[in-house]
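Hello, quick one for you while I still have it in my head. A protein chain has come my way and I'm curious about its shape. I'm sending you its amino acid sequence along with the C-alpha cells. I'd be grateful if you could look everything over and explain what you see. Here's the protein in full, and shout if anything looks odd to you:
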Amino acid sequence: MGVQDFDETVQKNINRVQPFEMVEQTNRWCRELGFHSVNFDLIYGLPHQTRTSFDDTVEKVIALKPDRIALYSFAYVPWLKHHQRKIDTQTLPEANEKMEIFVSARNRFLNAGYQAIAMDHFALKTDELSKAFNEQKLYRNFMGYTVKPADEYIGLGMTAIGFLGNTFIQNVKELPEYYRLLREGTLPVERGKALTADDQIRQWVIHSLMCHFSVKRQAFSVKFGVEFDEYFKEEQEHLQNCIEDGLLRKTDDGYEATEMGRLFIRNVCMGFDWYLRQKGSHQRFSKTV
C-alpha cells in the first residue's frame, strides 16, 4: 500500500489524502482475505515533513504491523518531473533534517522488531524477505527488493520499463500516445538501452553491494574471467576514499559495507556507475540524501 505519510498537511501538499482510518481498514481487509504479507510504502523528504511529524507516522505504521516496509527517499527532480516545479522548496526538509528523519524512522522500525533489509526496506524476521536477505538470496529490480529473480520481464502501461535480451525498454509517457500506438498494433515503446559488456559487469557489482552490502573478488573473477582490481583500476581511488570515510572495509576476498556504509550504500555504488561520470549527468539524477 502506498501510504507515503499519515500527516494531514503533508498529504494535502502532495495531493494524496488518505486518512489513517482508510489505511487501517484496508490493512484489516487484506488480513481477512488471507494475504500472508502486506507491504507499506513510505516516503521521507516530502514537503512540510519534519522529524516529529514523520515519527508519528512511523508509530502508526508500527501499530498496524505490516510485514514489509519500503522507506523511499523523495526524489526532487523538477527538471524531469515538471509538476514538481509547483513545490515551494522552502517547505522541503534540508539535507541534515532529511537524514535525521530517515535515521529516526530506521531506529524505530528496528526497535519494533523489524530487520533492516539492505538499503531501504524493512521486514519482520518471519517474512520471506528477511530470510532471503540472511541467506544472500535477495534481488533488486525497479520496484525495490524481491525474493525472486526475474532475468527478463515485460513492462505494461505507460512509462513502464521492461528488460529483455539485456536491453531495457521503456514505454511512452503520455496516455493518449500509449493508446494510439496500441490501436495501431505497434508496441508503445519510447526508448531502449542495450547493455554493453561493461554495463553488465557494473550492474553485477552494484547489485551485489545493494543486496548484500559486499562484493567478492573470487565470485567476480569466476563470473567474468577477469580480476576485480585489474578491471576496476580507475575505481581504486573511490574505494580507498570509501574506506577512509568509514563506508567500506577490506575483507580477504573483497569489500563489505560498514554500519555507516549501509546507510550510504548509494554513494558507494555511484563510484561504479560509468554514466554518472559523464558530462551533465548531475542534472539528470536526484540527490542521495
Summary: The chain is about 40% helix and 20% strand. Residues 197-283 form a domain with the Arc Repressor Mutant, subunit A fold (CATH 1.10.10.920). The longest helix spans residues 95-111.
